[in-house]
UniProtKB/TrEMBL annotation:
UniProt GO BP: CUT catabolic process; exonucleolytic trimming to generate mature 3'-end of 5.8S rRNA from tricistronic rRNA transcript (SSU-rRNA, 5.8S rRNA, LSU-rRNA); nuclear polyadenylation-dependent rRNA catabolic process; poly(A)-dependent snoRNA 3'-end processing; regulation of gene expression; TRAMP-dependent tRNA surveillance pathway; U4 snRNA 3'-end processing
Species the sequence originates in: Acyrthosiphon pisum
Gene Ontology MF term list: RNA binding
Highest taxon, organism lineage: Eukaryota
Protein name: Ribosomal RNA-processing protein 40
SUPFAM superfamilies in alphabetical order: Eukaryotic type KH-domain (KH-domain type I), Nucleic acid-binding proteins, Ribosomal L27 protein-like
Keyword annotations from UniProtKB, A to Z: Cytoplasm, Exosome, Nucleus, RNA-binding, rRNA processing
Amino acid sequence: MISVDFNNVVLPGNDVSHIVLKGDNCKRSEKTIGPGLKSVDNKIIVCNGGVLRCKDDKYFWIEYFKKKYIPAKDDVVVGIVAAKTSEMYKVDIGASELATLPYLAFTNATKKNRPDIKVGNVVAAKIKMATPFMESEISCVEYANSIIFGQLENGFLINVSLNYALRLRKSNSKLLYQLGQMVPYEIVIGANGKIWIHSASIRTTIAIGNAILNAEHLEEEDIPQLVKSFNKSLNI
């Protein structure tokens, strides 16, 4: 098998063990492989062509074009409640199966104090368990970060490609930063390509959504012109 360098384009069958498993055994146990990679005979092999990515030298995955979202543990997702049972919600996160969301998987939830969420409501959650060919389990328990987990109210939901959502989730997104300089807004970007947006008015919220959709295929140098058009549409 052909070895490759980190952050390069990789092809199915490439061996990336020398990148993912570098370090002592203690650190190896902390590392996780995500979409596009699999473990075969103590080796990490690429199963989808794309670009090898890494986060905090612990989580490795392949960034590749795909239409269907494949749940991965610890992904932040935005979903729509599709059904309720006696013990859980069924949530559409764009995967092949509906995800399960237990009633107790909310911050401060108890058997007597369950969240009042209805079918059709939008929620932000984290993938707690992801198993191939089975329902994923998600959780809305809040963690020590700025992401809003739980029901998302009074906002606007748009769908984008999975690769575009991944680009927007990066902290250095030029588009989101410049939009934030113009108007205050809240946004939750799911790894599953669903984005929830909320601002002071419906008009502004829709304008932000349109700007995000229109920027998907633009180059970085074209973003300022798009933001100018956004300002003009709102008379800012």
